[in-house]
Amino acid sequence: MLYTFSAWFQISEGSESVSAIFKTNGSGLIRVGQVIAKHGCWTLLKGGIVANFSSNAEILFESKNSRVEIWADSISLQPFTEKRWRQHQDENIERVRKSKVRFQVTDINESALQGATVFINQTSSRFPFGCGMNDHILTSKDYQSWFASRFKYTTFTNQMKWYYTEAERGVENYTIADTMLKFTKENGISVRGHNILWDNPKQQPEWVKTLSPKELKEAAAKRIESVVSRYRGQLIAWDVMNENLHFRFYEDKLGENASAEYYAKAYQLDPNTTMFLNEFNTLEYRMDELSSPWNYLKKLKEILSFPGTDGISAALGLQGHFGTSQPNLPYIRSAIELLSTAGVPLWLTELSVDPNPKQAEFFELILRECYSHPAVEGIIMFAGPAVAGFNETTLVDANFKNTAAGDVVDKLIEEWGTKPQKAIADSTGSVEISLHHGDYDVIVTHPLTNSSITLNLSVGKSFPQETIHVKFHT
């Protein structure tokens, strides 16, 4: 069973993190979710668990500040079967990812043409569903063909990072990134820029780790100017300061506003590109308070309130590196719902699942959950071919034959709109079909003369509900 949990919280003074915890017989303590509760107003906590056990449970509320009283109200625990949860996902997909289209086929006299055939083929999807890419694609024709036939969105896994483009101080080399970008342009693939700076002290170029604060400030300014100016207007997004909830390399050396200053600078250099925060464990590990949804919203607010970020197109990136345990879909849904209150785009940016006997099953569960949520505007998987070193979530083996996870991805690509469809007009000459948002080529064939009419159709959230009339003049 899957359980969603919600409750309203207030505390007797100040502002504190409050967690909801289940204490069960034999299963220990299970953290359900957390919220930053305040004195003087009520705050909603939403979370959940997947229960593969039967037990009585106590519901406990925890704050690390033992001086405060915790007040809770409207506590709710709702059970769902896996079948009902999947049904809800499908209903959401039908509501937010698809629109109904009705064709009315007639002859020159406005008479209905029963039996007319309508062929529908999606040429592009409105939902960005892509895959990470690395430099092995430059030397492997099989990798190129496999990628270009499936994906129109990507993130270079390492090739734009500072330690890759300036391994030696003062010696910049963008050759690999430039060549990869050339390949994506030739194949109509949009690229997320990853990343400008990384707050993890271990992920700096070796020469950066020993710089004084003054030298670091100068080097970082040169880095951001160099990479953003080079690719200005060519990318759909930038991960500006990677993982700045977990790490503080720049804040510790340059001050508390370091991340915000770099967001302002990146926006100044490339104002028409979306600027992402990008963090791990927000969805995949509910025990990590550093990257909890509430802390993520707090960080976003800090950045957007900094001088120089007015008008910035900001977005939240959720990496989504899941381990071997069953994904907690209720918690994922609750986290996304909370993050959606920020009113900015939300993407899964590096989705992967560690190897385990149920890897493909878990991968599909996560993909369906995120695709079905209206707040999610894109998904990039950090997965791919074995020959390119994608060892965590491998989609094709050394011979480019699908793994089980690869089968899942191909099935979903087909299910989410790219499979050609065929429908036959009824006695009233009508065809009604539900289409995923995207662009389509439509061919309507006359039932008697076999003549055809070709249409181009764009289906989106604001798609008009009126009927599309197709009239044959022969």
UniProtKB/TrEMBL annotation:
This is GH10 domain-containing protein. It comes from the Eukaryota. InterPro entries: GH (IPR017853), GH10 (IPR044846), GH10_dom (IPR001000). One of its GO terms (molecular function) is endo-1,4-beta-xylanase activity. Keywords: Carbohydrate metabolism, Hydrolase, Polysaccharide degradation. It holds the Pfam family Glyco_hydro_10. One of its GO terms (biological process) is polysaccharide catabolic process. PANTHER family: ENDO-1,4-BETA-XYLANASE 5-RELATED, GLYCOSYL HYDROLASE. Residues 109-412 form the GH10 domain. SUPFAM superfamilies: (Trans)glycosidases (SSF51445). It comes from Lupinus luteus.
